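ok, trying the design again with the full structure, not the truncated one.
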């Protein structure tokens, strides 16, 4: 039987601990030892603990302070939980196909297995409405997301601010066809949670999480993307980034596509990014929270309907992708850099919801 350490107990000489003396007289197990005072042994005396304290096994105590009070285990380092999840997912990841194709061309089945399509209550007036789901439920497709866990999808807060999606579709390529070689599946939505400091006018903190009612069974067309490390800077010169989504193919009416599209972009210098969107936020953009990306040739970009989808790159030595940005806003399609929520600035917030500390 392990001795017990009480987080709020006091380390005192055993002669000052009634229960310790009683255990000693009756040859019973003593409270946990915590040092000596002269030649007298000291114990963590439970008689002196707070009435609300609960015992924890001695092995969970990390250290003691200089005054011999018990120190609780430190909280996990920000980024450690998501990094461990990425390693776990990578070990069982399914092979993926072609990468880094430019100029907004169609994606293939299983190429971006983390891509999620958000379905809202049916609206016949929306251009991309009416796709029949399983069990005869209709939905209006609007916004994208990224699967990052068996139960969670990452998206933009402005996508779920006014209405919570009723369903998330995973594993699809063409939502308007059953002959695209994909194997899509719908998952009912339990809830959504936007960042508490989201501002719908400035689009600051434009990030949200959607929790599914059931777990996603990972396979070759449905598997998660990883998160970046906290404060990771994806503005490295010459680094290729990919944007994917089911949005418009040009900034014009009736240009929405039912096909999943992909395009290769480059991160834009933050000074250019800030100058482009300075009028949207008092004091300008926040570099640790937002970033811009664009096609140097001006041929490809995220567009309307791509909101909430990922700006991503391939994880080194893995089949998985890393979502570094969430599509937030733009000024035309390809005419100026697109604005993205920088995921590395929100790893702590995401982890506390998706991988809460035990």
């Amino acid at each position: 039987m392990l001795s017990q350490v009480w987080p709020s107990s006091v380390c005192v000489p055993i002669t000052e601990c009634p229960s310790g003396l009683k255990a000693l007289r009756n040859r019973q197990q003593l409270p946990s030892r915590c040092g000596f005072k002269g030649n007298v042994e000291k114990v963590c005396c439970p008689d002196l603990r707070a009435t609300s304290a609960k015992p924890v096994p001695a092995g969970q105590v990390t250290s003691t302070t200089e005054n011999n009070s018990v120190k609780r285990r430190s909280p996990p380092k920000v980024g450690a939980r998501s990094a461990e999840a990425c390693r776990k997912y990578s070990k069982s990841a399914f092979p993926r196909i072609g990468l880094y194709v430019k100029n907004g061309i169609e994606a293939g089945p299983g190429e971006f297995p983390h891509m999620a399509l958000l379905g809202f209550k049916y609206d016949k007036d929306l251009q991309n409405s009416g796709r029949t789901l399983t069990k005869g439920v209709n939905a209006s497709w609007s916004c994208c997301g990224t699967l990052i866990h068996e139960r969670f999808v990452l998206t933009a807060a402005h996508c779920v601010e006014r209405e919570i999606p009723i369903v998330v579709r995973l594993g699809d390529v063409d939502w308007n066809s059953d002959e695209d070689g994909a194997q899509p599946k719908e998952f009912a939505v339990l809830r959504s949670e936007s960042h508490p400091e989201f501002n719908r006018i400035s689009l600051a903190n434009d990030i949200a999480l959607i929790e599914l009612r059931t777990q996603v069974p990972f396979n070759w067309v449905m598997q998660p993307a990883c998160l970046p490390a906290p404060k990771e800077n994806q503005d490295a010169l010459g680094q290729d980034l990919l944007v994917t989504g089911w949005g418009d193919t040009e900034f014009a009416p009736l240009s929405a596509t039912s096909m999943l599209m992909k395009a290769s972009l480059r991160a834009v210098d933050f000074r250019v990014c800030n100058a482009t969107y300075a009028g949207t936020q008092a004091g300008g953009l926040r570099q640790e929270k937002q970033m811009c990306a664009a096609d140097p040739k001006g041929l490809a970009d995220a567009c309307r309907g791509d909101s909430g989808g990922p700006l991503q790159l391939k994880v080194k030595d893995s089949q998985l992708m890393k979502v570094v940005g969430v599509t937030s806003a733009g000024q035309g399609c390809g005419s100026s850099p697109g604005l993205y929520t920088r995921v590395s600035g929100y790893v702590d917030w995401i982890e506390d919801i998706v991988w809460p500390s035990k």
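Keeping the full-length input from now on. The longest strand covers residues 138-147.
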